[in-house]
Design a protein that fits this description.
Blueprint: E1 3-7, H1 11-16, E2 26-30, E3 51-53, E4 55-60, E5 79-85, E6 87-88, H2 89-97, H3 103-106, E7 112-119, E8 130-135, E9 138-144, H4 152-162, E10 170-172, E11 180-181, E12 187-192, E13 195-201
Parallel strand pairs: 1-10
Antiparallel strand pairs: 1-2, 3-6, 3-11, 4-5, 4-10, 5-7, 8-9, 8-12, 12-13
The chain binds zinc ion.
The site of zinc ion has 7 residues, from loops.
Amino acid sequence: MKIICIGRNYAAHIKELENEKPENPVLFLKPDTTILQKNQPFFIPHFSNDIHYEVEILVRIEKLGKHIAPHFAPKYYSQIGLGIDFTARTVQNELKQKGLPWEKAKAFDGSSLIGDWFDKETFKSLDELSFRLDKNGITVQETTTEYMLWKIDELISYCSQYFTLKIGDVIFTGTPAGVGPVAIEDHLVGFIENKQAFSVKIK
Ligand code: ZN
């Protein structure tokens, strides 16, 4: 399986990183070796002490597809999740400045936390899904999917113009504002509406 990540999908987050608003979604890939094993802590990697959390709504693809029109996209998923796209921010900024690919900052082992999956029918509307991340009991990121520049179905359609989507692929739909650093002993808990999707310790 592969993980497809969307960058810059919330206007407020684009502003906080002083990025330009893109014309099209920004895409990058993470290999399956980035997946953090269930119920394991996240270990800060040896090459960076500036790791940021990015909480994101996830979609799990369950049908093979290519060139999917947005109005057919709902047929390609039935589950929604929440995860963290851990990012080595200083490394990413250095790579960005040099115009180099981001993999060392984004695709290191353990950098993809994938929480529990929920049937999409559980939620009233996927276009107004609220979600949040708590760090040590304090909410640090909180928004709703209303503020996505590109909605889930548009993202599936866009990604499938470039990459064949396969069963089990996961799309990370981008992070809202509020990203920040983690430190050893931090405890991160993510919620979609009022349902807990994950809980992870930083080591
Ligand atoms: Zn991200």
